[in-house]
Amino acid sequence: MAISMTTAAADRVRSFLQNRGKGLGLRVGIKTTGCSGLAYVLEFVDTLNDDDEVFEQDDLKLIVDGKSLVYIDGTQLDFVKEGLNEGFQFNNPNVNGECGCGESFTV
Amino acid sequence: MLLQIAEPGQSAAPHQHKLAAGIDLGTTNSLVATVRSGEAKTLVNQQGRDMLPSVVRYTADNVIVGDDAMAAAATDADNTIVSVKRLMGKGYSETLALKDKVPYQLVDQQGLVAIDTAQGVKNPVEISAEILATLANTASETLGGELNGVVITVPAYFDDAQRQATKDAAKLAGLNVMRLLNEPTAAALAYGLDSGQEGVIAVYDLGGGTFDISILRLRRGVFEVLATGGDSALGGDDFDHAIVSHLQQLSGQSSLSHQAMRHYLTLARHVKEQLTDNEVTHFTLPGAADSMQLSRADIEQLIAPLVKKTIRACRQVLRDADLTVEDVVKVVMVGGSTRVPLVRQDVARFFGNEPLTSIDPDKVVALGAAIQANVLVGNKADSDTLLLDVIPLSLGLETMGGLTEKIIPRNTVIPVARAQEFTTFKDGQTAMALHVVQGERELVDDCRSLARFELRGIPPMPAGGAHIRVTFQVDADGLLSVTAQEKSSGVQANIQVKPSYGLSDEQVTTMLKSSMQFARQDMQLRLLREQQVEAERVLEAVSQALNTDVSLLDEKEVADITQALARLAQVKQGDDTAAIKAAIEHTNTLTDDFAARRMDQSIRTALKGHNVDEV
């Protein structure tokens, strides 16, 4: 089981962490809300929880709690630009249906 | 939907991302910034620029904002509104001085200033709303959604009317203003000083056309504006003009056409920017063949007097705040002109402290506003930064003789309530007129009138017998209410001062300057008026006593007192303070005995028919 990032995503995460001045890495996960059931979580991490799994990619740590991992295993995190807007996108092979905007999903 | 990284535990539910932006609504340029994935950044528009010229142009069927509007400033001056910030919250009569300085047509819109354009009369609120809407549009395109809230920065000295006008403009632009933030405070926030060392922070803001110095105090994570000062007509543009006149001397041209002036100004700016990083720069004068050179030392000599002026203002504002340079722990630099090495050097020398310059001085205010917006919209849990304000000019009451009695001195932190007791001047006085004024001068005529009201129904009492407590209260939004209450009867009256009575920064500056300039003269006038009022009181009291108790005096005494009163009445008309004082003292001495006899008589009257044991 694993999750990963594109180079574009890794570069941004590295720069945001540096700018923030602290943090162990990036938490990637899901929570159970939203119009299609599940929603992604993307947060800085200051402390690890007992059930966290850590995936290292180069010098960066991706942190996923055990329960989330089931739903996002194999996900690749990307950073994309759409016009003036830019941000992270989840390419999750487990997804069966998304809400119109892709912010929440079902598996 | 593209996602951003949240702080631990702060991930928003889907479709509930709270988008917030900070807006620096400037006189010359405006910027919008936001915090994404923990990083504050200014946002660029479709043209790839983050600085939006604060210029709005009205054509018959279109509204153009920014660079394209500015391009037409020279050809369509009537419909191209620049520097609208200077008109915010102003009455028409307040802007008469600007009438010849702005290239567009100012008109009176029910007492407020407005501008006649190709699309009819537009007021400063509507014009600012166009700028805000353009910035908000850039922000929502960049963030991929409508903004939930914005923080807009205003100068620390902005009065209530100017703040209200800024809020109205945001409302008109469809924005939810979470807070107006003082520009110096925003700059301090951008440097993260809110989580740093507690103490006094000086924010030195030298823009293109204005200079502001603000003294903040950080205590337990709270910023408080202690004092503000500066010069609303001093900035980098003056540096450019100083360089232009030097170049003019070099070229031997005594007068310049409009077009030549523009070329020279462009060259001056280029020279100034070159000498920011280099010791020497080479250039060619317009129309000349030979290359010339200027060194940094050359231009420093030209602008040194201007920089000195800003340092003098720094000294003054510290004095206002009752502080010394040793109290200042951090100095923050804001505004493009603080890139000039001499400015940095002189500021560092004055404060004995290396100023903070690592953040782009053109963007630092917008970035701070973005950080505050991010906190207020609820994207960050552990912050509760509160910001306080001060009143820019003293608030007081008119007392007898047209003098000002200051109730709340300037630079007092708001909210604040202060009370003072006053009394009646005449026997049996049942009403008191209260005149609320704002300013630093000693005479009411030289201050600004804010409001008048009357306290009626005071029970008749001898002069000086009534206790009238007057309370001035300024709430957190800067609104003033004044209450007067007579103690024994409880009768009271109050008034709310309307925000439209606010003052512009130019007026504040002018009023402060004149209060210093006329300090001695004012004090002498005050002493004179005080003696005149006292003379009036003595005349009134003695005449009253003569009317009722003339029987207690012999003929000579009556004649002497009458003569003394006549003399007092006469010198009172003049302006010799010492003579009036002498005449009052003379009258007092002369009537001492009379007063004693009246006292004896009233005691006898009071005791008549009473047994000694009863007393």
From TrEMBL, chain B:
InterPro entries: ATPase_NBD, Heat_shock_70_CS, HSP70_C_sf, HSP70_peptide-bd_sf, Hsp_70_fam, ISC_FeS_clus_asmbl_HscA. GO terms for molecular function: hydrolase activity. Keywords: ATP-binding, Chaperone, Hydrolase, Nucleotide-binding. Pfam families: HSP70. It comes from the Bacteria. Belongs to the heat shock protein 70 family. NCBIfam families: HscA, PRK05183.1. Chaperone involved in the maturation of iron-sulfur cluster-containing proteins. Has a low intrinsic ATPase activity which is markedly stimulated by HscB. This is Chaperone protein HscA homolog. It comes from Rheinheimera baltica. The lineage of its organism: Bacteria, Pseudomonadati, Pseudomonadota, Gammaproteobacteria, Chromatiales.
